[in-house]
Specification:
22 strands; alpha+beta; 50% helix; 18-stranded antiparallel β-sheet; Serine Threonine Protein Phosphatase 5, Tetratricopeptide repeat; 49 helices; 1279 residues
């Protein structure tokens, strides 16, 4: 067992490299620097150094070898071969050529696999023979070089016939690597094992015993070699005396020396039986196959041969047949002369118990392991190994307090024991006491450090404690620097790498963290701890599939209890992630069922219960999740700080800020373990970020920034905090600053699809349409099968006006969700002064900063009153202890219809504007005008069938119309037609309007062409073209323009035409012209302005011109997805060239004032539900109307003169006007919709009423909340 332990310790030191003597020679200095940087795995600096050396000496072998090695390591074999050729061309061929040739050979995949297999073979002789064969297969007859030669010769030396070759090879390496202590140790050991060279080996081991790197192993082997030598000859006594000078209390070695001296005085040297001599030589060579038959034969001849019995005991010990070994050694010690074997017997018993205890601990039988250690302790209470082993077991079980006490007890009895010292340092480090660990390390003398095992890298341990202390202070830069120093001192330590990787994560450097961990796996792909730390990093990043795959590479037999527990954690997280994704797709019942079946995985472990509880919160069952965690806390009369923090985490995810903050304030200042400290820091950070986002959503950017800034100060590069700050800038309209903050996040995490979509969103708000497009495309390429990514990308596409592509993405997302449902199974903020806040004084924001930056580590929840403070208040502010990033929880959209996924809802939004439908309506309009003249009752039954054609839609419109004005009274005959006395009768008309329409929603383009109702007295071609689009520079600004020819529907005369009693016909007026408008709407307020110019043309009607101007402003008093409330001020002005508001021949019969001014206060309230939506609009204001006098018969001068030139009088009125409109729509089913509208307009002595109803049938199913605001279907002839 001791030999086995020694071999492990030696293997742990294999990475040591030769040092270089100090020299002032420039080339030697460059050689030293080059190898230094290569040892530090910094190829860039190494390459720079080697190039400098080649500039001084173009054929310098070390430089050629160094560059060739770098090319090989960077997978450029052709370039490496070029440098090998240059080395081989030198005369004589340097050793570096042989080394590079071997490096290239070993780097081949097939040879790398052979080398791995050779290293995995164990200690038994037959396995060593196999390992040697594999090494020779790699070397292909070439002489082994470098570090691989070192391990090869060491393995060869333990084979039956390899000792001499091994010694010769190690002697060569000693000459080539004079400063390599491991080569010297291997050589000394093999010399000591060989009886012919044993004295030389003992002398070499004596020298190495004081070496800082291998002294512990050399000292142990030195003693073994003296025991193997036996009672010394007179010329060998000095070897024993030298050992006893260092170890004066070793009674066994002193007894052997005394025995040898006594035998020398007796005149006859002690002689061992020749057969036994041969057997013991075989034992020394590790040739158990030769030794066993010799010992067996001797015992057959002489069953009580003390040396044969003792030798057989040693043989069985090496075969790890400890019971047999003990039996033989017991027999040997009971015979005369057997006292020399007592030490071996005690050793076998002691280490057998220790070995059995370690096996039991690995198998999870902790109680048995402790019992075996206790037996070992009773067997040899003076030996510290058992107590140290027990403390090690306790540390593995995270019983740090007990382990610490155990190590301190050993040190009290054995001051300076290296294993106890190093164990205590590790326990202090793991238990969150880096300050105590640092003090202990600094108190260890150089002599004590020299006795530590080579695996104990004391300088790395010290730097690690410095890093942990910096972490506790929240100084991430200092922590990173310390961990880098630790990694330089112990580059192969996976836990040091993991500590530094965690710092990179907190600083937002995800790629650097992953590269650091993966770097070790490239060189040690099967090393359990390297795989374990890679798994832990994946867990930190919530990459559970990757974590599962990496952990699965660790053989089950090599997994620790912690690794097995992590496997359960991973399984639970995968299950909860599936449930959360299921809920995101709208399948909440299935998600809850999945979580219910996952409960068995928690095994009532609080950390796992917290994971499950948080998942319940995220799938929309927050109270259930909170109840789970509350039970954990309540069932424990004295809940631990860690349990309270777990509960606080779930509260935060449920947005219970007050309760979470109360727990965090309670925990603040209490002693925390290392994990507890990290968890607390994470929660404080998440607490601030979540509340900052909530304040931003309330449009309180000043308070949001004050809430976030202490977190940003601690983690200036963390994606979560910087992303929150970027969103604040985007909300303030500063898209440029938002982009500046977001760009480094993308650079650090270019393959994060969600970050790419965030970038696209900011780019879209900043009207960088090209970037929004490319970032969305990158996200889709990264995760083409993720419904959440597809849905979010579709929203960006929709914002870009690419509704067809958006709909395609959403259909793909829905198809994936459907398939997944079917198979779902359980399976840097800028530098800032203390009062700096970039949002103070912006429109709608506070004029002063708040107290949230100085509110302590745990600020008050956002529903508590937030005070504003003056800048002087910051003078006494202290920085908060905030550090470490925290991945934010995903939130499930809270909608009334939980069965609908976001993709379904988004697709519905697009389809509402694109899906085909048929609709039948009925509308009635009437006014209080004079019968036969201005009176109109308009009944229409509009029908429309719309079909999508690619990205466009086309529609057919058929609109039956019946108009009625009543009969012209006898007193009104003079004001109708040509003023004859012939009764005109009832004025009515009926017709059917026809039209086809085209729309391109992406371009905001509409067009239609048709004919006014066929059957009317007059009908004519009507239609128009319009466009309405946002400006590319800022989508809040829009412009619109249209050109049209539309019927004027004020009266029967203007719309259909009239005929008097004598058959005179006139009317059928159309407005021909254009309109332009500009608007701005930022969802907080809006402004607009418009202008139009039209020529009004009719039949036997004087031509007219209309000019109209208008503008307005409105504010959103309430604006969310379900309801809006706006209040505004509007103004308009209109003028007509002629007053044609009359019904005699030549007049158009439409409202046409020469001066019209209106100033109103409009208000609109709209609300949407799952199946019903409505809106109410009203306006009240002042109106001024002035109409000039006019001829009775304009354009008919003869008729006008013959009637005595009659004229209508001019009028001018000012008064109050108001209007009211209400519209609603109800979803009868996924395809049938019933809607309606009523309206009232009043202006002085004029009043108009209108109402309509319609039934719409869609060709595709729509679901989800009704659109807001409602857009009722109207006749194409409605105003």
């Amino acid at each position: 067992m001791r030999r086995h332990t020694l071999a492990i310790a030696i293997l742990a030191a294999l990475a040591s490299t030769a040092s270089f003597a100090e020299t002032s020679d420039p080339q030697s200095l460059l050689i030293e620097q080059g190898y230094y940087w290569q040892a530090k795995k910094n190829p860039e600096r190494a390459l720079e150094t080697w190039q400098k050396l080649l500039n001084l000496s173009p054929e310098q072998p070390d430089a050629l070898y160094g560059i060739g090695l770098i090319q090989m390591q960077q997978n450029h074999p052709a370039e490496a071969q070029k440098y090998l050729a240059r080395l081989q061309a030198l005369s004589p061929v340097p050793r570096q050529a042989l080394q590079l040739e071997q490096d290239i050979t070993v780097n081949m995949p097939e040879n790398a696999k052979l080398l791995e297999q050779a290293r995995e073979l164990g200690e038994p002789e037959d396995e060593r023979e196999k390992a040697v064969a594999l090494y020779r297969q790699i070397f292909q007859g070439r002489q082994p070089q470098g570090l691989i030669a070192r391990e090869y010769y060491n393995t060869l030396g333990f084979t039956a016939k390899g000792t001499n070759e091994a010694i010769a090879g190690l002697q060569r390496l000693t000459r080539e690597r004079p400063n390599d202590p491991i080569v010297a140790l291997f050589l000394a050991k093999h010399l000591a094992r060989n009886p012919a060279t044993r004295p030389d080996g003992i002398r070499a081991l004596a020298k190495l015993a004081s070496n800082n790197d291998v002294g512990g192993n050399a000292d142990e082997t030195w003693r073994f070699a003296l025991v193997w030598l036996g009672p010394p000859k007179p010329d060998q006594v000095a070897l024993f005396q030298q050992f006893l000078t260092v170890h004066p209390d070793d009674t066994e070695i002193r007894a052997l020396m005394d025995k040898g001296i006594a035998q020398g005085k007796g005149g006859g040297a002690w002689q061992r039986d020749p057969q036994m001599t041969k057997a013991f030589k075989a034992l020394d060579d590790g040739d158990l196959k030769t030794a066993e038959p010799l010992l067996t034969a001797r015992l057959a001849q002489k069953s009580n041969d003390v040396d044969a019995l003792g030798g057989m005991g040693v043989l069985r010990q090496q075969q790890e047949r400890f019971s047999d070994a003990e039996n033989y050694l017991v027999q040997a010690t009971r015979l005369p002369g057997g006292a020399a074997w007592q030490s071996a017997l005690n050793d076998v018993r002691y280490w057998n118990l220790i070995s059995q205890s370690r096996d039991a601990q690995r198998a999870g039988r902790g109680a048995q392991a402790r019992d075996l250690v206790a037996q070992a302790e009773r067997l040899n209470p003076g030996q510290p190994g058992a107590a140290i082993a027990l403390a090690g077991f306790q540390a593995q079980d995270n019983q740090f307090d007990v382990a610490e006490a155990g190590y301190r007890k050993v040190l009290a009895r054995h001051p300076g024991d290296p294993d106890a010292l190093s164990g205590l340092i590790n326990v202090l480090s793991q238990s969150g006491q880096p300050d105590e660990a640092l003090k202990l390390i600094d108190s260890v003398s150089p002599a004590q450090r020299a006795k530590f095992a080579p695996s104990v890298k004391i300088n790395a341990l010290r730097a690690t404690q410095v890093g942990k202390l910096a972490e506790q202070r929240g100084d991430l830069k200092a922590a990173q620097a310390a961990y880098r120093q630790a990694l330089d001192a112990d580059p192969e330590n996976p836990w040091t790498r993991f500590a530094l990787a965690r710092m990179y994560l907190r600083d937002g450097q995800i790629r650097n963290a992953r590269a650091l961990i993966d770097g070790l796996l490239k060189t040690q792909p099967n090393q359990p701890d390297a795989l374990y730390t890679s798994t832990l990093l994946s867990a930190e990043l919530s990459e559970w599939k990757q974590a599962e795959a990496t952990l699965g590479r660790i053989p089950t037999a090599q997994r620790t209890a912690d690794m097995n527990e992590l496997a359960i954690d991973i399984a639970l997280h995968q299950q909860t992630d599936i449930a959360i994704e299921t809920a995101r797709r709208g399948q909440r019942p299935e998600a809850l069922a999945l979580l219910g079946r996952s409960e068995s995985l928690t095994r009532q472990k609080p950390e796992r219960v917290a994971v499950l509880a948080a998942a319940y919160v995220e799938v929309g069952a927050p109270q259930f999740g909170l109840d789970m965690m509350q039970k954990v806390v309540e069932n424990n009369p004295n809940p631990t700080v860690d349990q309270k923090l777990l509960y606080a985490n779930v509260l935060l995810k449920a947005n219970k800020y007050s309760e979470a903050g109360e727990i965090l304030r309670e925990v603040q200042g209490q002693p925390l373990t290392e994990i507890g400290r990290q968890r607390y820091d994470d929660l404080i950070y998440l607490y601030r970020v979540k509340q900052a986002d909530a304040l931003r959503e309330k449009n309180d950017l000043v308070a949001a920034y004050d809430m976030l800034s202490p977190a940003l100060a601690q983690r200036p590069n963390d994606a979560l905090g910087v992303g929150a700050l970027a969103r604040m800038y985007a909300a303030s309209g500063n898209g440029k600053k938002a982009m500046e903050l977001y760009t480094p996040l993308i650079q650090q995490n270019p393959n994060n699809a969600r970050l790419q979509l965030g970038l696209a969103d900011i780019a879209l708000k900043g009207n960088d349409r090209s970037l929004a497009q490319s970032a969305s495309d990158k996200a889709l390429a990264l995760e083409p099968g993720n419904p959440e990514i597809l849905t979010s990308a579709a929203r960006i596409y929709q914002g870009l006006g690419k509704n067809s592509e958006a709909a395609e993405l959403l259909r793909k997302a829905l198809a994936i969700e459907t398939a997944m449902k079917a198979r779902t199974q359980v399976a840097q903020a800028e530098p800032q002064g203390k009062s700096y806040n970039p949002f103070v004084g912006l429109p709608g924001q506070r004029r002063q900063v708040t107290d949230l930056t100085v509110a302590g580590a745990v600020p008050p929840p956002i529903d508590a009153p937030t005070k504003t403070v003056t800048s002087s208040a910051f003078a006494s502010a202290t920085s908060n202890d905030l550090s470490d990033p925290f991945v934010p929880p995903s939130t499930i959209a809270s909608i009334d219809s939980p069965e609908l996924s976001p993709a379904r809802l988004a697709l519905d939004t697009i389809l509402r504007d694109r899906t085909g439908y048929v609709v039948q309506g009925l509308s009635v309009r009437s006014n209080n005008g004079e019968k036969g003249l201005s009176k109109i009752t308009d009944v229409e039954a509009p029908f429309e069938a719309r079909m999508p054609v690619g990205d466009n839609t086309i529609a057919l419109r058929v609109t039956p119309v019946h108009l009625s004005a009543g009969s012209v009274g006898s007193d009104a005959l003079s004001r109708f037609g040509k003023g004859t006395t012939t009764p005109a009768g009832s004025q009515s008309d009926t017709g059917v309007g026809l039209a086809v329409a085209f729309e391109n929603p992406d371009e905001g383009l509409k067009a239609d062409v048709g004919v006014s109702p066929l059957g009317f007295l007059y009908n004519t071609l009507v239609g128009g073209v319009s466009v309405s689009r946002p400006f590319e520079a800022n989508s809040n600004f829009r412009y619109g323009a249209n050109i049209s020819r539309r019927p004027v529907t004020d009266s029967v005369t203007s719309f259909a035409g009239s005929e008097d009693g004598d058959g005179n016909k006139w009317g059928g007026v159309t407005a021909n012209g254009g309109r332009g408008e500009l608007s701005y709407d930022n969802q907080k307020l809006g402004v607009y302005g418009y202008a139009s110019l039209h020529e009004l043309l009719g039949n036997n009607v004087e031509d007219n011109t209309r000019l109209e101007l208008g503008s307005g402003i409105y504010w959103y008093l309430r604006n969310n997805q379900r309801d809006t409330l706006t209040l505004g001020i509007s103004g308009s002005a209109m003028t007509f060239k002629e007053n044609q508001d009359f019904y005699t021949y030549g007049n158009g019969g439409y409202f046409s004032p020469q001066r019209f001014f209106s100033l109103g206060v409009p208000i609109r309230w709209a609300q949407s539900f799952d199946r019903f939506s409505y809106q109410v609009k009203s306006s009240v204001g002042l109106q001024h109307i002035a109409q000039d006098g006019a001829d009775f018969f304009p354009g008919e001068s003869t008729l006008q003169a013959s009637r005595g030139n009659p004229k209508y009088e001019s009028t001018s009125k000012t008064g109050v006007g108001y209007s009211f409109n209400a519209a609603a729509e109800y979803r009868l089913s996924s395809r049938f919709y019933l809607g309606g509208e009523i309206g009232l307009d009043n202006a002085q002595d004029y009043r108009q009423y209108a109402g309509n109803a319609y039934l719409r049938y869609l060709f595709e199913d729509l679901s989800g909340p009704m659109p807001l605001p409602v857009s009722p279907y109207r006749s194409p002839y409605s105003n």
